[in-house]
Write a structure and sequence with these properties.
It is built from eight helices and twelve strands. The chain is an alpha/beta fold. The strands form three sheets. Strands 1, 2, 3, 7, 8, 9, 10 and 11 form an eight-stranded mixed beta sheet that branches. It has a two-stranded antiparallel ribbon with strand order 4-12. It has a two-stranded antiparallel sheet with strand order 5-6. Helix 2 packs across helix 7. The N and C termini lie far apart (44 Å).
Length: 262
Amino acid sequence: MYEAFVKCTSLPQAYHKALEELYNHGKVVSCDDYNQSQKELSMTIAVDNPLAEPMISRLFIGGFYELQQYVMEVINGILDFKIGDSINAWEYTYHDRIVNFAISPPGQKLNQLQFVIDELKRSPDTRRAVINIRDNSVDPFNANPACLQHMQFFIRDNKLHMKVLMRSNDAAEATFMNAFAFVMLQKKVADALGLPVGSYTHRANSFHCYEKDFDLLAQYVTGIQTKPEDEITYEYEGFFRDMMEESIPDIQRAVANLKAAK
């Protein structure tokens, strides 16, 4: 499998280079689980300053509402109530695995986010500040196991660095939203520690685009290669952040309606 590595200052720059790498070097292979082919390689995306502007890529499915909702899913657990729902049941959410990870003895839960903060306070040079997402009591038997596998945090050079491992990552439809939300989680931990945000590294063992999105990937890459940066990115601070935050009441109402319909 082709191994790709991209390293840039900002999140959109790195994401866009990763899309180009996939387009140019990804191999088309079968994906029988989804009855289609996929273009695939292994990808490491290294971002020196994930809070650098422009911070928002325009090349993802959705807009400010969808990005805000996803951040709230990961950070606040707004859809955790869907786990085990009798209709359209979810086996997990990232947020629930982060703050309510099942441990022994049965019935015990670990808030891994708090563990990471406490561990980094205990020993700033620790290599043990890890959040595990994969649950081998569930995922091997799940048709849709967690794509995110683990997160690891390091304090180096008086900054909080974060490294993420994905077993599988949909480049065209999911990667940017995943990475943005994970950076927001990184910032939450950094703020709790009183530290600036350091580098962000996003590793996807299978970085892929499904056949149904081949044209979309080509469209993205054409935009990257032909348009100036300000036409394929947004500044986060200001307009885009304001629009995201203004969407919160609508998202909360939609979640309340989902809960009421259970």
